[in-house]
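ARCHIVE CARD
Drawer: 12
Card no.: 0347
Subject: one protein chain, sequence and derived structure
Cross-reference: see card 0346
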Amino acid sequence: MRYQNPQSGFTLLEVLLYSLIASTLLAGVTVFVSMTLEGNARQRVITDVESEAAAAIERITQVIRNAEGITTPVIGATGTTLVLDVVDNALDPTTIDVSSGALRIDEGSGSPEALTSNRVIASNLVVSNLTRGASPGTVHITFTLEASALTGRSTLNYSQTFYASASLRYD
């Protein structure tokens, strides 16, 4: 005859061991998911800054290339605002500057148009007039864009300085 244990189930030691294994696995999964989400947030911030800078540089260089002349800064000078004399009188003068954290373009008597969205903060606009001799005009622009994203544990900040140069086209 076989002896049967009337108390079937798990021992306290088995329950503790299984709980420890489950807790370790859960902690590992939680860390993995947290790191993935933080990486996604960081990549989104970098993409915002890079794409907005590319669009702003494209628009600024296009406006410079199509301008007739550079009003501000004067030849050999550096400033924080670019003022261009453009072909279309309705868009004359065209001004590029930074105000309230936005890179802006103001064409003619219209309202300034933001070249960057509220997802990024623009700063440190430096415009250099590098025109030499009888050349039509060359401008070098530097500006910084910054963006932030909140994650569960911290704030991710990303800042990048961008550079662009463009020359006015000959008539």
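Annotation on reverse: DSSP finds one helix and nine strands in the chain. Residues 12-167 form one domain.
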